[in-house]
Amino acid sequence: MNIVSKVPETSHGISAWPDTNDVMDRLNALLRQPPRGIRKDAMPKVLEYFDQKCQTSKALAERTAKVIPGGVQHNLAFNHPFPLAATRCDGAYMWDADGNRYIDFLQAGGPTLLGSNYLPVREKALQLINECGPVTGLFHEYEVKLAELIRHYMPANEMFRMLGSGTEAVMGAVRLARAFTGKKWIIKVGGAYHGWSDQMVYGMRVPGTGRREAIGIPKGTTAYTQEVFPNELGTLRRKLWMNKVRGGTAAIIVEPLGPESGTRPALRDYNKQLRALCDEFDALLIFDEVVTGFRVGMGGAQGYFGVRPDLTVFGKCLTGGYLMAGGIGGSKAVMMLLAGGIGTSSKRAFVGGTLSANPLSCVAGYHAISEMARTNAPVVAGRAGDRLCKGLNEIINRLGLPYVTYNFGSIVHLQTSAVLLMSMRNPIKLMKEASKRKHVMEEMGAAYLAHGVLTLAGSRIYTSLADTDEVIDNALNRFESVFKLV
Ligand SMILES: Cc1ncc(COP(=O)(O)O)c(C=O)c1O
Question: Which of ligand 1's atoms lies nearest the C-alpha of 326?
Answer without folding.
Answer: 10
